[in-house]
User: Fold these one by one.
Assistant:
Number 1:
Amino acid sequence: MAILLENYTTGNDDFTSVYSAQWGGQTFTATSNHTITSVKILAYRLGNAGTLTLSIRDTSAGKPTGSDLVSGTLDVSGITTSTSGELIEVTFATPLTVTSGTVYAIVCSATGADTSNRLKWNTQTTGAYAGGQFSSSSDGSSWTGQTFDNMFQIYGEPSLTTNLVSYYKLDESSGNASDSVGSNTLTNTNTVGYAAALINNGADFGATNSDKSFTSSGRINLTGNFTLSVWVKLRANPANGVAYQFIDIADNTGNVRAMIQLYNNGGQNQLYFGRVGTASTFVSGGINVSALGTTVWHRLTLTYNGTNIQAYMDGSEIGTATDASGTTATLSANLIRLGRDIGTAFYASTYMDEVGVWTRALSSTEETTLYNSGNGLQYPFIGSGPSNMKTWNGVPIEQIKTINGVPIASVKSFNSIT
């Protein structure tokens, strides 16, 4: 599902004309690795502006350069004539992959328009957008930089690493667990073991865990959207009345938290996916599931998109709930705990692997990708492709779907890189 990734639509106070003898180019900086599926611009028309062409180009010295990387067209003869404009969208047939921190340009042209029939692209004259600037051209080949910015929105699919703030492979053989993305090392309390797991090693909390857990050395903020995910394979099924807290992100009091828990309620196994604060929200108050057993790895995920919390198991959504007013309104500066809750309770007798925390809600498609038919994907989520290959033709490897037509997950080596 495409989401809004880059955006500048504030301070509209003027316009720039786009017609056959005047092209417009607004540069922008990619804030993450992602694809671009469509671009919206805020615009209106004078007369019949005909067909708009929007494209993305590379930049040089802050101005568009080279040929179109991707382009699309839209009939704008019927858009608004109001000076406040409307957001009009051009969708690209093939998504464009962009790299975080790189400056690109939105190029706008209407070669069939003239001074009496033209597009007016809404402008902010003070040039407050820090990620780029507007440029003008008579034909799209030579560009002149300006001091203002034009209104735009960039939509696309984020990389699986976008807004990933902590990730624990749990590949160690002993001791603390390192954070592959951030700096929230997990302190090993009472010697959580390591053993062969879903991908390489994973944590082994033992078959009768009563005191083993991990707690982060640093704190994490989940004041907005988030995702928590964990792979588990039980060492023992919980007895009646016993709960296993797989992941718990909470303040020091436990009054504010996000968590994933398995509970045996009178012989019925229930999964609790919760967001707790001055009010509490749990998906279905506990989701009845079959016994997870001790032979199969399961992926459990909790997402929050600002309105709803959603629960996933093994790549499929199993429940959703509207967030209660006041729930975790101040979910900030919290510790990550694996294998128990904030107190000394709910110790989990389980194997655990591949734990991730994002400050955005993963989509159902992304969940399916990360489940990977039960095989999982390990950060940086490039499948079983060459582990030492970081980029291909300058593109981060996690953005590559195929190499020479072969799915990346099937590529074991490329040009002798493994």
Number 2:
Amino acid sequence: MKKKLLASALIGIVIFFSYLFLRPKTRVLYSAHAAPSHYCGDKVISIVDGATRVEVFRLKDHLLSNYYPLAKHKEAIDYAGKPQGKEFASRLSDVLLKPTTYGIQNWACFSPGVAFRLWRNKQSATVLICFHCNNLLLLDDAAKASDKKGYTQGISSEGRAALVQLVKEVLPDDAVIQSLSADVPK
């Protein structure tokens, strides 16, 4: 009887540690294509997917939650980069709509330091990125505050590398941005 109990406990421990060490290190919680309405809404996906220009902003180093939307709270903007055209909009869109961009959400500061505003005709969506806690948020700029639909989303190591590269490209003179690491913070 004791041997069966000991064997069962040993099997349970082996299964637990096998799962712990063999599970994928990054998992997709939500992806823009798999569950757009759950993540940020079909309208935002449509804007991102058809964006023809992008504005880029370096944000002041403090919580932005009281300063959204950026258009009404310019005091949150530390620096506005040169507006980008369709080619850059397409590359940013490709990154944002790629399911592997998203990974484990880190419950942390969410103090975004970078914002992209993507434009499709007269509609816009804003992407807020916090490289401290490695999360981003996509929001419809036209939605009323009570209708805002969006969840902070973790960024995978692949997604972070792509976003850091794009941000460095459009803010080449910003020392803080240029010092960003493509590696996920630990």
Number 3:
Amino acid sequence: MTLPTDINFSRIEEGNQKDSMELIRELQDMYEEVAQNVNGFIRNSNEIDQANWTPTLTDTGGGTFSYSHQVGWSVRQGIFTQIWFDVRWNSSTSSGTLSLDLPYRVTLSDQNPFVGVVQPSIVNLGAGYSNVVIVAVPNTYRGEFQVTGNNIGYTLLNSPTTVGRLAGYLSYIGIEDE
């Protein structure tokens, strides 16, 4: 349910019309501000070009990727952020663990509550690993790729040095950048 963004005061007491009108305007402005904060704003950063965003992989070892395809979309309503990404690369000089640069900073949290889905293609996940997720790291612009398998806990995905593709979705609470 969303709140209406305006409120009308149709009855004004006689004799205090000026003060009443001023009060009404102030109350309407306050109500509109509260309603917009509760309902949220769907907005796109100018740098993201109307919800388009270029997803970039980062390697903790300082390596680089030669991309063949980088497509991303970002939708933000208030502080709620959703991203979709599809990244393909031809080669890499990577040597550490793999993460994705996010368009908005992730809120501060004691845990890692923001976990998204990933569909890998031609990516060596490591022996025994069969699933990939992306985890938004609190108070950063980074989503870490983690892998798991049957009866194996999550660990960071090692950066691939050959071709590959990662496509996925992540929803997280962001921090105001403005």
Number 4:
Amino acid sequence: MRVARGQGRGATPRMAIADRADDWCKLLPMCFDHDSHPPIAPIRGASIRTESLVLEPGDGARVGAYRATGSAPEGPAIVVLPDVRGLHRFYRELADRFAERGVDSIAVDYFARTAGITDRDNDFEYMPHVEQMTADGVRLDTAAAVEALRSSAPTRPVFVIGFCLGGSNAWQQAANGHDLAGVIGFYGHPGRARPPGAPAPVDRVGEMACPVLALMAGDDPGIPLDEVERFRTALEAAGVEHEVVVYDGAPHSFFDRKQETYADASSDAWERVVEFIGLR
């Protein structure tokens, strides 16, 4: 595992990161298993409330979402941005795991804009809907989720977390004026402009207004490690508080209960998430 941290201009990273190359977009259709689950143990006896809800971002859209509410109504909260699966069971379970720890959570369904508000099975053809996503749509959906989480506690800290495509989307939200406490991206591509209509995250670091956590796979042919290093360098130069962690040998989508070989990486990543949002 390699870690690079920065507290702003002039901070010295603990470690630089090596290089690889390939095309991230080609891997989008194969970046998950349908039977994936978060590698986080449920808390027995935790009292949470869950519900499906509809967000209204203000542009006329109606966006499906899943909310899990815990026992700390003024504590930190988090918006979950999925990968190309959209609002898959994995992300509902992840929202539950946060809520069990007192972190109210809303997982957003990107594809409600183009596929409607409905449950979808494993045969859902998501790529046509990925291609129809827009940066402004993700921004508005995130803003609506943040507003919902702050509806009863306007000053609570709100974070955004995302995975793969959602990881890149999460980093983008740091520059979108949501007054966030921090953003967390698992194996997003920092150098890809996706969805269309936005610069790549690495090109927006000068706009980022909150701390950034990047949790990256060291054996991910779709995300060259020189792009990860370029992101870290850009964050450093822009004075953005950040932590970039590369898990040597871990593949894309390692954060999965089935990936027993990478259990240590998953455990460390989760501990960093917990610390980042202030649960320690």
